[in-house]
Amino acid sequence: MYAIVETGGKQYRVKPGDTIAVERLSGEPGDVLDLGRVLLLAGNGGGASTRVGSPGVEGAVVRAEVVEHARGEKIIVFRYKSKVRYRRKTGHRQALTRVRITDILVDGASASPAAQVSGTTQPVAVEETPAVAAETTPTEASSTALPEVEEEAPTSAEPPTSVVADDPIPQVPEKTLFDDTA
Predict the structure, then answer these.
(1) Minimal CA–CA distance to 39: which of 53, 19, 21, 25?
(2) Is 126 contained in some domain?
(3) Residues of the domain holding 25
(4) Given this model, what pLDDT does residue 49 score?
(5) Of 35, 64, 99, 158, which has the fewest CB atoms closer than 10 Å, so is most exposed?
(6) Count of domains observed in the chain
(7) 162 within domain boundaries
(8) Cβ distance 40 to 57 under 8 Å?
(9) For residues 129 and 107, which has the higher predicted lDDT (pLDDT)?
(10) pLDDT value for 115
């Protein structure tokens, strides 16, 4: 049995056991979510009928478990206007959630007899979050911060004349090339 489900403005053909990447959904890894917008239910033969929704199949729910939150591949956006020297190159990485389909429910009963829901966790209603808000979370900002480096005070009065290889910014003497007092 398989279903066509819509989430994040896109449609996916899923069956129990599939893992798909959808646009960012709320929920932590391990949470169970119900994807309620099921557009079609179909069996794999054996007398199972196909139910087409208008727009959705009544009483049908696809149950999924959140595997991880990730980001998609970088997409380069290049805008160009000829003869006016206008060029803008930007990039974008979509926020994604990987979910594993655990079961397809029709009127509260499992549609596939072999699929069993593991655990006793209650499903959480799906709330789609905007990708802009999901990309800049406080935890990501704090995890990408650079470690603080303590600088030592120079022991002599002269400025350093050599550049240390590990230092990302070279040390420049206080006197400049345009200083006439030297």
Answers:
(1) 53
(2) yes
(3) 2-135
(4) 81
(5) 158
(6) 1
(7) no
(8) yes
(9) 107
(10) 45
107 pLDDT band, cuts 50/70/90, is confident
Q: Which amino acid is at 62?
A: V
Name the pLDDT band for 36 (thresholds 50, 70, 90). confident
Beta-strand relationship, 124-125 and 32-35: parallel
Please give the structure tokens belonging to residue 125: 């209603």
CA end-to-end distance (rounded Å), the chain: 85
**% of the chain exceeding 70 in pLDDT:** 58
The pTM of this model reads: 0.57
| Closest among 121, 132, 128, 120 to 37, alpha carbons compared | 128
Residue 65 lies in a domain: yes
Distance CA 62, CA 126 (A): 11
Let me know if residue 146 belongs to a domain.
Answer: no
